[in-house]
Amino acid sequence: MSAGISFAAATSLVAAVIYGGCGRSHDVRTEFYLAHGYSFPRGERMAIQEVADAAAEEVRRLLPALPRGLVLRAYAGADVIPETGETGSAIPPATVTWVVDPGRAGGVAQTVAKQLRATLFHEFHHLVRYRTVPRGRTLMDDVVSEGMATAFERDFAGAAPPWGAYPAEVDGWVEELRALAPDVARAPWMVRHPDGRRWVGLRAGTYLVDRAARRLGTTAAGLVDVDTPAVLSLAAQP
């Protein structure tokens, strides 16, 4: 996701009809789709393109393996993260979908200014990681990958995502996650649990990545191609 989180909702709009207005600068092609009757006006298209270009340039300095030929697909929709008014999803090898709610206070322009850069940092990290570390074979693969992308957007995009804030009892959450079947349903653990907890997997994953990074003296950028078992082993060390 972007919760940074790869919400399924982000890909549920793929039947929307593209109306044009694509922009290209550097290696980011931004495609704007007509969805739910909303057409992005020129000013919003320009603002989204500008943020996408700048984010790609910044991330490529940190993660040189970021693919070329990046594509950003922008849609309007209401099925978004309530706290941010948008959501993103990485689709290997080089595509990010972004859904934004135009009905929010401040409209699309405000969401672009406040959130798009951090979301792209998160999703671009996924694209780089998925080149060497397979996507989501197990729950813990998702936990670590989402935690790593969250730590990356926090540390390098200057964001403060609530899905990256882990509680005092996070060690218990880690044990809970590791005890689950590898193919358990993801949504209760990555989005909202029936007991009311949110982003259990992302918050625990961020904690694990922070521990592993401190152990190696590196960052989420330096860990991008480290596989799940190695991250878990590093995180378990005192």
Describe the 3D structure:
The protein has 238 residues and is an alpha/beta fold. The protein has 2 domains: 8-129, Zincin-like (2-Layer Sandwich); 139-236, no CATH class. Helices cover 42% and strands 13% of the residues. Strands 1, 2, 3, 4, 5 and 6 form a 6-stranded mixed β-sheet that branches. The model is unreliable at 2-21 (pLDDT under 50).
Blueprint of the fold:
Layout lengths: L16 E2 L4 E3 L2 E7 L7 H21 L7 E7 L9 E6 L3 E6 L6 H23 L9 H18 L13 H9 L8 H4 L9 H17 L11 H9 L2
Parallel strand pairs: 3-4, 4-6
Antiparallel strand pairs: 1-3, 2-3, 5-6
CATH fold-level topology of the largest domain: Zincin-like
Query: What overall geometry do the principal axes of the alpha carbons give?
Result: globular
Oligomer: single chain
Unreliable stretches (pLDDT < 50, length at least 5) are: 2-21
Q: What is the name of the CATH architecture of the largest domain?
A: 2-Layer Sandwich
Overall strand count: 6
Q: Strand portion, in percent?
A: 5-15%
CATH class of the largest domain, please?
Answer: Alpha Beta
Query: Nearest-angstrom radius of gyration?
Result: 17 Å
Total helical elements: 7
For the largest beta-sheet, the strand count, sense and barrel status come to: 6 strands, mixed
Distance between the termini: 30 Å
The domain tally reads: 2
Overall pLDDT confidence = 91
User: Roughly how much helix do the residues carry, as a percent range?
Assistant: 40-55%
**Content-based structural category:** alpha/beta
Secondary-structure element string: EEEHEEEHHHHHH
